[in-house]
Amino acid sequence: MDLFTHVLTAYLLTFGLVGYQPNYLIAGAIAGGLPDADVLVFPLAKRFPILRHHGITHSIFGVTVFALVGGLWIAPMLSHGGDPLVFFAVMMAGGVCHMLEDGFTHYSVAPFLPFSEQPLEVDADRAINFITLVVSVASFYVLLGVERGHVAFELYLLTVYGLMVFFVAYFGVRASARYVVGRRKKLVGDFDVPVPTTNPLVWLLLSESKQDGRMRTSFARYVFGRGVTKGPYVVDVPLEAPPVAGPAKDADEALARTYGVARKESDVLDQTYSFGEAVPAGPGAWKVHWYSLEFSAFGRSAGVTVDLAADGSTRAKSSWRVPLWRKELA
Predict the structure, then answer these.
(1) pLDDT tens digit string along 11-26?
(2) Residue 140 has what pLDDT?
(3) Which of 92, 93, 123, 276 could form a disulfide with 290 if both were Cys (CB 3.0 to 4.6 A apart)?
(4) How confident is the model at residue 1 (pLDDT cuts 50, 70, 90)?
(5) Which of 171, 221, 230 is nearest to 194 (CA)?
């Protein structure tokens, strides 16, 4: 979930708990965004992994610390009044809301850190979905710009309740779609994991194994009401680049010789489900794109492009590109 959606849904949740009380609404909304403050200490994450994004700040422990400090001390001091216990409650609710929303996506959190690494990952939505992002940004503009101090209070209430209905319906649709596609995935092919896309009616069905020094991934595009519309596509490559010189004879060999190179360039390939495609780039040369099946935006996927020259040398760089199978849909 994006930061705007976290803050907005925490605001709506706080409104549902305490009604129109601006001091508490502000505290709850801020608490909805606080877990993402971990990006400020991201440089320390390699030395202290618990400080990684979606680490300790996205746990019940971290949320409670924020609520204790903010609710019992900072918020009452800045607002010059208000019940510290209510501030604590709304900030706790906003932080837990953030944590659960992230766990609702394909980007897992560990809610019981530092005591357990057990992940929460429902796989019902994208980490950033532009549907909710656009709705949230527009809602802030309407609530804080267009309506604030300019319209009747009843119209403001209608907007707030309308947004509540939208998000309840949105999460309900996504959760229902995840449940249904999870039940059907084995009926349409040998797939283990449903991967959400921006559209709740369109999913990627996927299976991946990494064993004996190799990675094998297969996936297909599944559309409700139509079944599998693309694929399955399959890639089977060694985890490490083999020491081979000279030109690659075909796309399969180009993929096999570049996956290890791409993994060293970007850890997104190890952290998410990934796939690769190779196209000729001149006599004996290939352009290979390894990309995430989970991190994408506007049709482009995060990954690594590897130029494999005719002499066997490689050059890799991180990039966002449109996968070939998506181009076929255009």
Answers:
(1) 999 999 999 999 999 9
(2) 93
(3) 276
(4) confident
(5) 221
| Angle (nearest 5°) at CA 12 between 6 and 17 | 120
Residue 117's CB is within 10 A of a number of other CB atoms, namely: 11
Cis peptide before 196 (omega within 30 of 0): no
Written as six digits, the tokens of 217 are 């991934």
HEC assignment per residue over the chain: CCHHHHHHHHHHHHHHHHCCCHHHHHHHHHHHHHHHHHHHHHHHCCCCHHHCCCCHHHCHHHHHHHHHHHHHHHHHHHHCCCCHHHHHHHHHHHHHHHHHHHHHCCCCECCCCCCCCCCECCCCCCCCCHHHHHHHHHHHHHHHHHCCCCCCHHHHHHHHHHHHHHHHHHHHHHHHHHHHHHHHHHHCCCCCEEEECCCCCEEEEEEEEEECCEEEEEEEEEECCCEEEEEEEEEEEECCCCCCCCCCCCHHHHHHCCHHHHHHHCCHHHHCCEEEEEEECCCCCEEEEEEEEEEEECCEEEEEEEEECCCCCEEEEEEEECCHHHHCCC
Percent of the chain topping pLDDT 90: 82
102 token code pair: 């992230």
